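Checklist before submission:
- one chain only
- standard amino acids only
- sequence pasted in full

Submission:
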Amino acid sequence: MATLVVTRAAGGSRDPIHRYWVLLDRRTIGTLGRGESMQMPLQPGPHRLQIKIGTERSQVFVIDGDGDRTLAFRCGPTGSAWHTMEDVFRGDGGYIFLRPDPDAPDVPVRRGPTGPWPEP
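Returned file contents:
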């Protein structure tokens, strides 16, 4: 069984007191404050991972829970507080980021669609 680890960036001037919601398969599995991490076992099979704050969402990653490995991701704001309104109104999911952790071993993922969850 794979393990999912998501870590939120510790710094930045945006969202200092707000928590990011971690979504797995459309369900909230936890929240992250600045500099916090969460870890959980993943059931085998494909899953959709995304981060949310308010109405803003990150891109979606499709991850595979098969095998005995750790799937590590980082999330955080994409810009400073000065660019908040620009990022919100741009509407391309650019307010917050989610990406594989560059310090972790290779994580086999494929990027899913951005925006709302696709219907099955």
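Reviewer check: The first helix runs from residue 84 to 90.
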